[in-house]
UniProtKB/TrEMBL annotation:
Organism: Myceligenerans crystallogenes
Pfam families: HTH_31, MLTR_LBD
CDD domains: HTH_XRE
InterPro entries assigned: Cro/C1-type_HTH (IPR001387), Lambda_DNA-bd_dom_sf (IPR010982), MLTR_LBD (IPR041413)
Coiled coil: none
PANTHER family named among the record's database cross-references: BLL4672 PROTEIN, BLL4672 PROTEIN-RELATED
Upper lineage: Bacteria, Bacillati, Actinomycetota, Actinomycetes, Micrococcales
Protein name: Helix-turn-helix transcriptional regulator
Ranges where the HTH cro/C1-type domain occurs: 37-84
Amino acid sequence: MEPMDRPALADFLRRRREELRPSDVGVAPGARRRTPGLRREEVAALTGMSVDYYVRLEQKRGPQPSEQMLAALARTLRLSADERDHLYRLAGHHPPERTPLDTHVAPALLRVLDRLDDSPAFVISALGEVLVSNALACVIFGDRARLTGWDRYSAWTWFTDPATRAVYPPGDHERHARSLVASLRAAHGSPATARRAGELVDALRARSPEFGELWDRHEVGRRFETRKTLVHPEVGSFEVDCQALLTEDQSQALVVLTPEPASEAEDKIRLLAVLGSQVFGPSVRLP
């Protein structure tokens, strides 16, 4: 690590904070806002740090942030990849290597995600790593983005954690499993993601005979089902259409789940929005 440039870091954070509007990050504007852009406490809450910690950073007296904290700050402030790298350098860290597996969510996808408060949506990598989810997606699938290691990956949880499958009806399990394996096979065949995909394949083969059988079928193709049936312990089953918006390099995709207008599914999703995170049944993870 290098020494921090506290004055420059403080100035950069303040300027980026003041450039954001509450609507840019899905925050209600409220009345009588005297602060341009976001408030410090809003940045702290969205980042997952204490208000005092963030205030000290802007006052040039904060301790050196960890790489995990910088990644969260970059996401909250909707920084571009270049701005993210600059933030790391000011804080005395080397910027993360830019690869197709970079977990820094594309700001363009985040801007769309922030405006989707009535539809479950999440951003996923080419390897099926869940990078960020909106509130409704967390209610239905759980917040995988807060997990670590292989638990963030769709294929891993599907084949190693039986509870994951509760979000789909049993009749759809085989089709969904094949889709996950085919997508992983596509990532395994790409030079940009082959090494990490190979590590995941080896780990899954060691844990799941079912995965091994499906992998040996050699089905390949990145797949997003156009229609899904989901199951939630509080509202039962409901159908949604599935749309994916990919970045230009196809390294990340914003997946949006929408019910038909004026349908029973739409009513159930509205109910889940009211229930929020107060889920009475066992939590499940996003497959």
